[in-house]
């Protein structure tokens, strides 16, 4: 197999734009998730293998008026994203089949603008410094207590929904003088 110089230059250009070249010193400045902060959320896919956790999260999000999809593993998550194109991916950090960090990094290769939130029972560790490379927008630490997770998610979603509604412009029809 022969590789031309043009294809190498094209690869280098792509790598530079993704901040994987040596010339890039600030990894956070080019993170794809920064652009998604003002995006409105109407649908969510929840990657959760435990029925009781999924039921609690789905109930909360449905109450907030969102459309909910479920994936029990990373393979189902990919299918849900392709078929339903949800606005937010909510991942459990304790998935048994694949690391949520790896799943998030894979999602970023396909879609760099979709927000990805991870919820975890454990506090942040040294591995969490890789968040910007894995493409995580938010990490919710809930200490293993389901009520804490639901409350924390409710607070974040309420803020996100209210921020999105403030970004909608209300145009008034001019009144006659």
UniProtKB/TrEMBL annotation:
Protein name: Response regulatory domain-containing protein
């Amino acid at each position: 197999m022969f590789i031309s110089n043009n294809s190498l230059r094209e690869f280098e250009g792509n790598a530079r734009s993704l901040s994987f070249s040596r010339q890039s010193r600030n990894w956070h400045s080019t993170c794809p998730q920064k652009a998604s902060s003002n995006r409105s959320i109407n649908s969510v896919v929840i990657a959760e293998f435990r029925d009781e956790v999924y039921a609690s999260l789905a109930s909360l999000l449905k109450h907030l008026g969102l459309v909910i999809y479920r994936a029990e593993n990373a393979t189902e998550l990919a299918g849900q994203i392709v078929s339903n194109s949800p606005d937010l991916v909510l991942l459990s950090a304790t998935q048994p089949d694949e690391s949520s960090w790896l799943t998030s990094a894979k999602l970023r290769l396909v879609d760099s603008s979709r927000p990805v939130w991870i919820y975890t029972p454990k506090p942040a560790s040294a591995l969490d410094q890789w968040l910007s490379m894995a493409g995580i927008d938010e990490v919710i630490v809930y200490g293993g207590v389901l009520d804490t997770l639901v409350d924390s998610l409710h607070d974040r979603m309420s803020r996100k929904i209210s921020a999105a509604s403030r970004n909608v412009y209300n145009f008034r029809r001019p009144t006659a003088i």
